[in-house]
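TL;DR need structure tokens for one chain.
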Amino acid sequence: MEAPENCNGKKGQLQGEALKIGAIKSGTFLLPTKDEYKNLQDNVISKMIEDDIKTAVLGDPVVMNFGNKLYEQMGHIAHRQVYISQKMRELGKLSIKVTENNMLQLLIASFVVTGIYLSSVSLFYFETKEFKMPSLALKIGHSMKKCAQDMYFESQVKGNNEEANVADNFFKMYKIVWMVEISSKALATLEKMKYNKTQLLPLVEDVVTLSNYLKLISEKIKKSGICNQEQYVELSKMCLAEIILFNRRRS
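>> reply
TL;DR here they are.
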């Protein structure tokens, strides 16, 4: 009995993919997925690194729905698919910390517990009140808020008052507690890191050498006469470089 034509096509596609990305990874295309997640699976999930974070993402319906919403919004742009993957993996890291739970159960849990899990993922130091990865804490917070928004919308459409109340309670706690417990500390850490970041300055001798070189090239172009567009462009570049160098020296 011959296989249907579409099966042969799928088999050929998988053989081609196996040569590109490996047999095991290409085999993930055969895993059953919801029709609504098909494009997300083919273009984002299948390209993720095979690790515990990906497993957590696949096992969490809230994160999958979050990723699917992002894909509907920007998935048609190829380079944004990497961004979608990163956002899903950030939430996946949080899901791993919530043992045997998913993002829905995390939203249901008390906001204090949520903050503890997030602090663990972003490496919060209670002694100094600083995050080692402050930007990660902010990003996860925004993503969780988006998850709650999606949950609230879909629960209202389906008439699921229980989930709608969960999402609504999360919003209320987010407005009251998040600024104090997470975002303010993360932003303060970012500001401190920016303030303490060393700025490498060029040596005075190097600045003088560059300035003299720019003046020399400019004078040569002026003496030869600006006869064509190429010389005009070159002179414009030299003038712009001198202005930038002058402003940098003043600052």
